[in-house]
Amino acid sequence: MDQEIRQVAEQLIHSGSHNIQSPGIEISHSHSIHTIPSLHPDYIISEDLLAGHRTNGRMSTVRRFFCMFVTFDLLFISLMWLICVMLKGENIMKALNEQIYHYNIHTSLFDVVLAAVCRFVVLLLFYGLIYMNHWFIVSISTTLTCVFLISKVFVYDWPHSAQPVFEVLLVLASFVLSWGEAWFLDFRVLPQESHARRFLISNSDSERAPLIRSYVNGLPSLYTESVGNFYSPLGSPEGSMYRFNSGPVLGRYPPVQLTSEQEDNYKSLAARTMQEAWDLLHKKDWKLEKACGSDSVYTMTVPKIGKVFKLIAYLDVTPKFLLDELFYRVETLPQWNSTLLESHKVQVIDEHTDISYQIGADGAAGVVSSRDFVNLRHWDVIEGRYVIACVGTEHPSLPKNDKYIRGENRAGCWAMQEDPNDPNKCIFQWVLNTNLNGWIPQYVRDTAFVGMMFDYVKHLKQHIAKQRENGRL
After folding, report:
1. Which of 41, 138, 324, 420 could bond 233 through an S-S bridge, CB–CB 3.0 to 4.6 Å?
2. Exposed, middle or buried: residue 188 (CB in 10 Å: 0-12, 13-18, 19+)?
3. What are phi and psi of 133, to 5 degrees?
């Protein structure tokens, strides 16, 4: 297992970077794990991730362990049954004749072995041969085993048993192993394989190969399959992916020279934030809080965090335009968004990641005073959507001050995807996961967030309309 992990890691680490050309524009978009934050080795290249990876289409390590565990289940139960038979002190052939050929549910435990055989055949068939990716079959096998074992306890003739201790252990072992199979598949095999499918990008055969993962290698990617998804947004400003500059950002808050360790920490945090925000976005516990026309705000209570908000709106613009406006034109946000007093790009980490500083305006009719935020932002293309993840961080140029209370953004995101009915429109989703700090009544806080989100999308629609009038769209 360790050798396979090292081989896969070395294969990924030595993967080259690729240049993708869009019409008339050269884009340097490196996709080695040294440059893509979401594939940073400190976070992604781990034993758990690589155990779920199907190298060259073969069975993943974690699934192979599951198959070995199912085999161990059969062999262990069979061995315990043989021990129970031999401890009766009878001739082995006579004992087997009574247990198998003259089987009686009240005196024989051979049916426990048969249950293990059934689990072995069914689980290896569906999860080893057919390579099923659902917990349905193992849940059935565990349920039927439990029903059978509980029934067996009631009908077995325990008072006349020669070795009751070992026979009890046999039944308990079968019960525990069947539940262990269900637990391991549902909580280890399926999540690790799903994680690997979403985050591992197949290595290209040459430096000139296009950045499209190969279905032949059986390694699905977090990114979309179309090269068109890597085209740059229209009219990107200085510092965008058209003209990426990793040097100093000239502005009110000066950048600093980061060490390699600091950059790695920021990139690892960006990768974790993207995953956490993506998971929040797809939670099924969202409940409608308030609707305003076609726009809706949903809420969800997350343990140890509190209430989280999600806005869904429909905008008459392409997702690429929104990516450009919200990520690369961060300095211009206060010009059209009155909920912000200031917005600055402080430090560029790489072409997908930066650190920004925002000062929010008063909210809830002045009840909630201004807060400032230092945010680490990172964008990627995930399943056909542009996703901008954001989380609060620290920066040497932005210590806390007495003028504003420092707010804290937990993992949240903006997600933009094409409207399936019109490619020139998009579905805009915003997950807001913020701690304003300071004492604010819950009702006031919730009201302020809902109102601010509706105000934000209203200003965004007005900005889009103005850009269209000016001929930019």
Report:
1. 324
2. middle
3. -115, 50
User: Quick one: tokens of 281?
Assistant: 């976005």
List Cα–Cα distances, 102 to 106, 153, 157, 168, in angstroms: 12, 20, 16, 22
Q: How far is the C-alpha of 468 from the C-alpha of 424, rounded, in Å? A: 13
* Confidence (pLDDT) at 32: 33
Q: Please tell me the distance from the alpha carbon of residue 207 to that of residue 15, in angstroms, as a whole number.
A: 8
pTM over 0.85: no
Dist CA 332 CA 353 (whole Å): 18
Average of per-residue pLDDT values in the chain: 78
Helices 190-199, 61-86: crossing angle, 10 deg rounding: 170
Q: What are the structure tokens assigned to 163, written together?
A: 């070795």
Contact of 274 with 380, CB cutoff 8 Å: yes
DSSP letter (8 states) at residue 363: B
Per-residue 3-state assignment (H helix, E strand, C coil) for 181-242: HHHHHHHHHHHHHHHHHHHCCCCCCCCCCCCCCCCCCCCCCCCCCCHHHHCCCCCCCCCCCC
Amino acid 119: pLDDT: 96
Locate all alpha helices (DSSP H) within 22-109, ordered by sequence: 47-51, 61-86, 92-96
Separation CA 187–CA 105 (nearest Å) = 35
Given this model, what pLDDT does residue 48 score?
62
What's the rounded Cα separation, in Å, for the pair 6 and 3?
A: 5
Q: Reduced to 3 states, what is the DSSP secondary structure of residue 144?
A: helix
Distance CA 241, CA 249 (A): 15
Note the pLDDT of residue 311.
Answer: 94
Is beta strand 405-406 parallel, antiparallel or unpaired with respect to 25-29? unpaired
Q: What pairs with residue 21 in β-bridges?
A: 26
* Token pair listed for 3: 């050798």
The pLDDT tens digits for 134-149 are 999 999 999 999 999 9
367 and 448 Cβ atoms separated by less than 8 Å: yes
**For the CA atoms of 338, 339, 345, 350, what is the dihedral angle to 10 degrees?**
-120
* DSSP, res 473: -
More confidently predicted of 469 and 53: 469
